[in-house]
Amino acid sequence: MSVKIRLQRHGKKGKPFYWIVAADARAKRDGKYLEKIGTYNPNVNPAIIDLDVDLAVSWLQNGAQPTDTAKNLLSYKGAMLKNHLVGGIRKGALTQEQADAKFAAWVEAKATKISDKEAGLSQAQSDAKAAAFAAEKAVNEARIEAAKPVVEEVVEAAAETEAEEVAPDTIDEAQAKSAE
């Protein structure tokens, strides 16, 4: 019997949610499985992957073959690296302490990378909100300014006509006024 580590789809239409399972290769995609290893939610950014790394490594050590997508997810969470380190321990190239130190350093670097991505996404989102607010504010100010001068022009025009009728400023204006 061949065992595969693959994704089993759950969730509703347009909102997939996956279980990462170890299943017989002959079983249906969403059918019977041997053991649930974790979950994968691609609906958020960054995607949420909850994986039991030790359980995945034990299945890999027993000969389970991951599908392409499952292999990417296992690699993202460090299960493939841990499997590689366990192979090195078994061959005598590493000690358990060295392997644990390498894996812990990798996990820490990965966590830092993910937190930086989340911070960058939240910063980009807040920048987009600020830009949208500034654009909306500018449009509102332009609309207010466009409506305001119409009233002032009428008042200014009426004031100018009254000022001209009261007293002309220059002799030329007085002559032109008398010619009319």
The assigned structural class equals: alpha+beta
Strand order of the largest sheet: 4-3-2-1-5
- What helical percentage do the residues reach? 55-70%
Helix-strand sequence: EEEEHEHHHH
Mean pLDDT: 85
Any overview of this molecule?
The protein is an alpha+beta fold. It is built from five helices and five strands. A five-stranded mixed beta sheet has the order 4-3-2-1-5. β3 and β4 (48-51) form a beta hairpin. α1 crosses α3. The model has no long low-confidence stretch (mean pLDDT 85).
List the helices and strands and how they pair.
Blueprint: E1 3-12, E2 15-24, E3 35-41, E4 48-51, H1 53-61, E5 65-66, H2 68-77, H3 79-91, H4 96-166, H5 171-179
Parallel strand pairs: 1-5
Antiparallel strand pairs: 1-2, 2-3, 3-4
Helix pairs in contact: 1-3
Characteristic terms for this protein:
180 residues; five-stranded mixed β-sheet; 5 strands; alpha+beta; elongated
Short description:
The chain has 180 residues and is of the alpha+beta class. It is built from five helices and five strands.
